Amino acid sequence: MLLIFERGEKGRGLSLLPACDVPVVLPDDDNMRQKPLHLPEVSENDISRHYTDLERKSYGVNDGFYPLGSCTMKYNPKVNEDMASLSGFRDIHPLAPEACVQGCMEVLKTAEEYLCEITGMERMTFQPAAGAHGEFTGLLMIKAYHEGKDDRKRTKIIVPDSAHGTNPASVSMVGYTMVSVKSREDGGVDLDELKNVVGEDTAGLMLTNPNTLGLFDPHILEITDIVHKAGGLTYYDGANLNAIMGIIRPGDMGFDVVHLNLHKTFSTPHGGGGPGSGPVGCKKFLVDFLPKNLVDEENGSYTFTNPGNSIGRVRSFYGNFLVVLRALTYLLTLGKEGVPSVACHAVLNANYMMEELKDLYDIPYPAPCMHEFVMSLEGLKKETDISATDIAKGLLDYGIHPPTMYFPLIVPEALMAEPVETESLAAIDGAIQAFRELYERAQTDPQSLHRAPVHTPAGRMDELRAARHLILRYDFDERQKGADDDQKY
Prior knowledge:
oxidoreductase; single chain; Probable glycine dehydrogenase (decarboxylating) subunit 2; seven-stranded mixed sheet; alpha/beta; pyridoxal phosphate; glycine binding; Aspartate Aminotransferase, domain 1; Aspartate Aminotransferase, domain 2; glycine dehydrogenase (decarboxylating) activity; 11% strand; globular; three-stranded antiparallel sheet
């Protein structure tokens, strides 16, 4: 596919933008570019075809089944988009006076109240722009809490080996040291090892429940109690809240801080670089450390307030407001009864799919799962030389996005699938049939899977070469040299 820079020709253009109606003021010579800015010279027709081509080559939840584990790639109701496109929300300026944006502030306050009720938290900030950003924010609050007590010996965060990959990175960014805790054979946290690693240097624990194996830890109250008795705080990674919302609250499990993924659990657009939203909530004793700009109601109107010991801003202004609006629309549409219904159907779909595949695919943790489950293709690879990657590539030819590959790391040749609650029985049955046919092909025609996919815009990539020989920028000078050489001959 041609890049937009390669579609046009010199002198070609269009008139979508109005003529400039103010004086043109250029910077002085010292601040001027030494080379012309590389802008594509294209017609409206060129632009339209370019983005149409991109759309055809991309894949999203509107295209088909998207069982990406721990990501909850659910359908985004169009009513959410309708609300986010209303001019009174869409066209506001973040520096507008409070009196002019009372409706928007009410959205933030209402969303905070609903999400605090769902999570069992006291207050919530919407500043973090994604889940990992929320992790960073929550850990900063934990650090500020301990330093506020002049307890600077607490330098370690405990993270289970089944944790999301962003957890260790967030721990490092905050300046803490990560301590890994192994899982038991049933997939839960090893309580004996946890007791051995907690101590006076424990700042906290990061954990998601259900975990990345799709399992709810039955000892969760004991886990959080062990950390609290050691003087640490507990952080809930909300990436898997889709399985339990409206059924059980992280706050009731003993967690002090929680982040949510509005772009996962609450049906806002997900993927493609954003925008996302990773709000952070906390118990009452941590409210004073939240980022600046909370919304409070005073004398019938809304105003922004700042916590006394705030960690400061973690993002400009108030977060990705329209993402919050979409999530609130989703909650209002579901209502009190609909929220737990989402969780129940997510769990039902995952267990149904797991049960229909377990006679062929190895399920290392066969207990009833929550919203996702993990398969291991280690045995299949030894028998047929078909790997998790081969099965994932094969799914592309069925019009199905692959599940998460090679994660969690504690499962060899892992495929982690999350069918989500918005998929119909027919769609899930179709995916089950595809998995079963791919397993049979692994037995009878493994070479065909080594070549897969063959019906997609791009075929099997040389991933090793791509990783070792990165091309991260477009070389305009080299392109121009090639064009000049072509003209010579």
